[in-house]
Specification:
This is Methyltransferase domain-containing protein. With 280 residues, the protein is an alpha/beta fold. It is built from nine helices and seven strands, in the order αβαβααββαβαββααα. Bound molecules: S-adenosylmethionine.
Length: 280
């Protein structure tokens, strides 16, 4: 049975009072304010505690804290697994940590900082350190999969192979935090290619789109959604097919920008290597 997602149309997370999630404010995050509320709402209101919550690309745990706080407030017991390389260069440390109240420190390792920041939720969170492509999943059901690490086509396919088969059809959500990011056009393309397995449920500014898994993910689904073998024309063609969906959220311009990015960066499949087409 496919769970009704009509309530998403009213973006009920907007009504969450930030005081409810006050404890999370000490954990720096790259999430927009509305996305933070969404994450808290998903684990406090939507999930039914029938599978794990997986946070891919948690940085110092900002997203994990919002997920864990909702999970804790709702008294849920399934585990939260957060993955990251847990490395940050000086520029990222200055912009994302020191500016947000973390005292300066030496080196690039942020694992212990994340452990420390997530201490209020430590009885429900496991951190997995290292490249996601070196990890395996234990095969248990995943009820909520939050994705902020699909920064290349290789990682995007690697994540799909490792985690999508364990989603619970009809219930599980995939939160694509970078769906509308111009540097990562393969994300909307993959979700479009897997449209028989995922249906879009809501958009949450700045960049997030939420999908519901509606059919079991098998080899056929993974083959259909593979993005690493696609050439630029195939990416552009798929993006044209994504435009009507983007239009429903008045975000068609974001798809146009992705198309300009592909044309300005032929063959590039890693986000940080993409040159901004609008600054050329
Ligand atoms: C935009 S940041 C995440 C922000 C975070 N979700 C928050 O709430 O602040 C993206 C993270 O993904 C991680 N990442 C990207 N690719 C990865 C990979 N292949 N394996 C592990 N972590 C990865 C980076 O280390 C980085 O911390």
């Amino acid at each position: 049975m496919i769970r009704d997602t009509n309530e998403f149309n009213d973006a009920p997370w907007r009504a969450i009072d930030r005081a409810e999630m006050e404890q999370t404010q000490s954990v720096p995050t790259m999430l927009a304010k509305r996305e933070q509320k969404l994450y808290y709402w998903l684990t406090s209101h939507w999930t039914q505690d029938i599978g794990a919550v997986v946070d891919l690309g948690c940085f110092v745990g900002g997203s994990t804290a919002r997920l864990a706080d909702g999970h804790m407030d709702a008294g849920k017991s399934h585990w939260i697994h957060a993955y990251d390389r847990f490395k940050a260069d000086e520029r990222t440390k200055a912009a994302e940590l020191y500016r947000k109240g973390i005292a300066p420190f030496k080196g690039t390792d942020i694992y212990w900082l994340a452990r420390d920041l997530l201490e209020p939720w430590e009885e429900r969170v496991t951190l997995h350190r290292g490249d996601i492509l070196t990890k395996t999943w234990d095969g248990s059901p995943i009820e909520l999969l939050v994705m902020d690490a699909a920064k290349s086509t290789e990682t995007t396919d690697g994540i799909a192979e490792r985690f999508f088969p364990h989603l619970i059809p009809g219930q599980s959500l995939v939160v694509q935090q970078d769906y509308f990011h111009w540097r990562l056009p393969w994300i909307p393309v993959q979700m479009h290619l897997m449209k028989d397995w995922f249906r879009p449920v809501a958009f949450c500014p700045d960049d997030t789109v939420i999908f519901q898994n509606i059919r079991p993910i098998d080899d056929k689904a993974l083959t259909a959604g593979k993005v690493s073998d696609l050439d630029d024309d195939a990416l552009l063609g798929s993006l044209t097919e994504v435009q009507p969906l983007a239009r429903t959220w008045r975000r068609k311009q974001r798809i146009y920008r992705m198309k300009r990015a592909i044309k300005a960066n032929p063959g590039v499949r890693t986000g940080y290597l993409m040159v901004d087409p609008d600054k050329l």
